[in-house]
Amino acid sequence: MTEFITQLPKAELHLHLEGSLEPELMLKLAQRNKLFLPYDDIAAIKAAYEFGNLQDFLDIYYQGANVLQTEQDFFDLTWAYLLRCKEQGVVHTEPCFDPQTHTDRGIPFPVVVNGISAALKQGQTQLGISSYLILSFLRHLPEEAAFKTLEMALPYRDQFIAVGLDSSEMGHPPEKFERVFAKARAEGFKAVAHAGEEGPAAYVWSALDLLSVDRIDHGVRAFEDAKLIQRLIDEQVPLTVCPLSNTRLKVFADMADHTILKMLDQGVMVTVNSDDPAYFGGYVAENYQAIYESLAMTPAQLQQLAINSIKASFLPQDVKNSII
Ligand code: HPA
Ligand code: ZN
């Protein structure tokens, strides 16, 4: 089945570049940049990756991102991820990054975006992997900070296609960012937002109605609201579901409890993604494999998930048609 999953042409639509920082690269960059890490070795880093909830994870994820300092570091991070894409049959990717995680500790925005963009370009020319970058705002910070980030990013507008919203969900509903999303859309960007990961189905409604997002990141808690599920089906709103993330962050106690197959069967436009693969124990193919094993999926259902990922991407229709 691993081979079957690998050969399916897939798009990855929910991937935090900072969350693809493998412990090996984290140690290497800490040494290169002469930074102190509170871990002695790779085993100690991996031992810290036991999370009770989203916030437990975020605390460690932001700490890990501190080793990213130079344009070369952001290039190396992104390139390592693209090599995984190549191995796993990901033909197109729409990764996101959190500028504020870096600018707030003094790393200039162009250092971050230029390092990432250079690797993405090389991914296209050397690996044949196409990509669009997504700029995410941190929702635990004020909307004013998101506005400043957008202003800072506008001179680099050709390097990203959409804005997103991530970080601590509870207590930071989409409505907090209504004005900055309106501004980003007026500037011509597409929009996505994390909603219904830990937060309630109400956050999915407000991401759709107030932020006018094109896709919902996660959205698994929509399953608790039958009217919302009907809307997602009627409007074919894509959900970028991340099964291993959901079990590692205890959104579902067990993979056998995951609702992705039920949603697929009902006609929801669900896709499979890895979120933060270095922290959650698997890239996109391991996520397909995990749901295949735990939910007794058929090859046809796995193929449908891969087709959905291409359909739900921001690729032009003619390119989608040529892949599917
Ligand atoms: N949820 C919210 N914010 C995040 C995540 C996530 O799964 N990963 C990185 N930032
Ligand atoms: Zn995410």
From TrEMBL:
<dbReference type="GO" id="GO:0005829">
    <property type="term" value="C:cytosol"/>
</dbReference>
<feature type="domain" description="Adenosine deaminase">
    <location>
        <begin position="9"/>
        <end position="324"/>
    </location>
</feature>
<keyword id="KW-0546">Nucleotide metabolism</keyword>
<feature type="binding site">
    <location>
        <position position="194"/>
    </location>
    <ligand>
        <name>Zn(2+)</name>
    </ligand>
</feature>
<dbReference type="InterPro" id="IPR028892">
    <property type="entry name" value="ADE"/>
</dbReference>
<keyword id="KW-0862">Zinc</keyword>
<dbReference type="GO" id="GO:0006146">
    <property type="term" value="P:adenine catabolic process"/>
</dbReference>
<dbReference type="InterPro" id="IPR006330">
    <property type="entry name" value="Ado/ade_deaminase"/>
</dbReference>
<dbReference type="GO" id="GO:0043103">
    <property type="term" value="P:hypoxanthine salvage"/>
</dbReference>
<dbReference type="GO" id="GO:0008270">
    <property type="term" value="F:zinc ion binding"/>
</dbReference>
<protein>
    <recommendedName>
        <fullName>Adenine deaminase</fullName>
        <ecNumber>3.5.4.2</ecNumber>
    </recommendedName>
</protein>
<comment type="function">
    <text>Catalyzes the hydrolytic deamination of adenine to hypoxanthine. Plays an important role in the purine salvage pathway and in nitrogen catabolism.</text>
</comment>
<dbReference type="GO" id="GO:0000034">
    <property type="term" value="F:adenine deaminase activity"/>
</dbReference>
<feature type="binding site">
    <location>
        <position position="276"/>
    </location>
    <ligand>
        <name>substrate</name>
    </ligand>
</feature>
<feature type="binding site">
    <location>
        <position position="275"/>
    </location>
    <ligand>
        <name>Zn(2+)</name>
    </ligand>
</feature>
<dbReference type="InterPro" id="IPR032466">
    <property type="entry name" value="Metal_Hydrolase"/>
</dbReference>
<feature type="binding site">
    <location>
        <position position="14"/>
    </location>
    <ligand>
        <name>Zn(2+)</name>
    </ligand>
</feature>
<keyword id="KW-0479">Metal-binding</keyword>
<feature type="active site" description="Proton donor">
    <location>
        <position position="197"/>
    </location>
</feature>
<dbReference type="Pfam" id="PF00962">
    <property type="entry name" value="A_deaminase"/>
</dbReference>
<comment type="similarity">
    <text>Belongs to the metallo-dependent hydrolases superfamily. Adenosine and AMP deaminases family. Adenine deaminase type 2 subfamily.</text>
</comment>
<dbReference type="GO" id="GO:0009117">
    <property type="term" value="P:nucleotide metabolic process"/>
</dbReference>
<feature type="site" description="Important for catalytic activity">
    <location>
        <position position="218"/>
    </location>
</feature>
<feature type="binding site">
    <location>
        <position position="16"/>
    </location>
    <ligand>
        <name>Zn(2+)</name>
    </ligand>
</feature>
<keyword id="KW-0378">Hydrolase</keyword>
<dbReference type="InterPro" id="IPR001365">
    <property type="entry name" value="A_deaminase_dom"/>
</dbReference>
